[in-house]
Amino acid sequence: MDFSKFFDDEFNVIDWLNQAFRLQKESNQNIDNYTGTLITKLQMYIQEMNNSIEETSQQAVQQFPRVLREIDVLRHEATLLQEQMRTVRGDIQKVNQDTADGMRNLIQLDSVKNRIQSASKALQEADNWVTLSAQIEDTFESKDTVQIATKLIAMQQSLKILTDVPDYADRVNRLEILKNRLEALISPAVVVAFNTQDVEMARSFAQVFQSMDRAQQLEDLYVTSVKTRLDARIKEIIDSTNGEHESIFIAIYDYLLNVWQDEIRWSTKIFNHPNRVTLSIILNGLKIFHSKYKNQFNTELQRQQTISSKNRLDILIACKRVSYRKVKKKERKSKVPS
């Protein structure tokens, strides 16, 4: 007899009985005997199930005290863990607070340290200014331009720190006067270096002028030194062309183009702004040419009253044509291939 059907969730007593009596028919047993046997087996199975339930109930009842004790232990441990977590959270908050306070103190201390350092540096620079100011006259008397420049640069550095002193403007004026004296003292040597194209000497002078924030003055000095050379050469070109105006323009533009190329190479080695220097030189050359050519042209017109207005116009058109060609040629050379 299959008693496992009783454990099915969809157990149906009618289906089970029908199945049981189908087995009776297949075995040809007496129905009364078969029914009695079936009832006996069911009673025995019920008794077995009761015994199993009772045994399981007794085991469960015996286990309750131990389970309750374990629950109490877990509850106690959970309470301890909660207390420990609360303690750790408090410690973390305290550490965070102490760290924040410490960082604020460190920032304040660093700020105070920087102020002290700034004040100390200002005092040192003030003392340095006084010392250098007292020594500078003796240094000028020695004519040692390197030492003079070194001291003036140091005074300039000190002055950058002493912007808030009451006599700051007077100190600035004094420093400028001293710089002018040094510039006047070394200008002849600078011009010699420029005229002889002495690159190393010119570079050393350029470093001195740049350190004193006078790079522009050095550039102006160089442009002025070149101007004399331009004046002589342009006069020579005009005088050598026998009054042929178109030839004058061609020769002048060729000369200035060569000057442009030479000066850009030289200025690049010496100055921070070689293009500015070269452009100033070329503009000076054009101004010199304009002045000298205009004077010669006017003198020629006065000497040759027979020149007609048309011939005068033809001369000007020819000169303009030369100028246009030279400018276009320079533009093409100046374009950098992409």
UniProtKB/TrEMBL annotation:
UniProt xrefs under PANTHER family: CONSERVED OLIGOMERIC GOLGI COMPLEX COMPONENT 7, CONSERVED OLIGOMERIC GOLGI COMPLEX SUBUNIT 7
Annotated family: Belongs to the COG7 family.
Keyword flag Transport: yes
Pfam family, one: COG7
Name the record gives this protein: Conserved oligomeric Golgi complex subunit 7
Compartments reported by the entry: Golgi apparatus membrane
Keywords (A to Z) from UniProt: Golgi apparatus, Membrane, Protein transport, Transport
Keyword 4Fe-4S: no
GO CC entries: Golgi membrane; Golgi transport complex
Any one biological process term the GO annotation gives: intracellular protein transport
Domain of life: Eukaryota
Membrane topology of this protein: Peripheral membrane protein
InterPro entries in UniProt: COG7
Primary localization: Golgi
